[in-house]
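Write out this protein's structure.
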Amino acid sequence: MDVAPITDTERFFARVERRSPAQCWWWTGSIVVSTNYPQMKRSDGAVAGIARFAWEVAYLRGPIPAGFVITRREHDWDDCEAGKNCVHRLCMNPDHMRLELKSTGDAERMRERNEPRTVCRKGHPLTDGNVVWVSRAQNKRMCRICFNRIQRRYRRNHL
């Protein structure tokens, strides 16, 4: 009895951890270590970028126009390390994917990243009385509460 070969789309869905429509669907297959982007070897031997494959083939949305990139609607820049540590690159939920102009997305991310924050990562307010400038040259500031905690921890461990 001959068994039909598995298609690239079947291989793709076998490596996607599907959950509810509101949650991220995580890629469980191969990942390029240097960039944290998911990848898959297609039946023709070529290695495919998974987000593009998902958009064009698996979810049948057609080709991606030139100058556009796939981004994730659920991406939260305040809660995510940008670059290769971004976990949102592994989300394959079609409801979270969107196309945007590459230059528009880059400009939007830079604007969001450069806007002054009003609270620190721990939720403390970044008001004039609660800010310590760690490096004025690099325009880096820190919440005074968190700064003092780090200083106490350092002194306790290094004295």
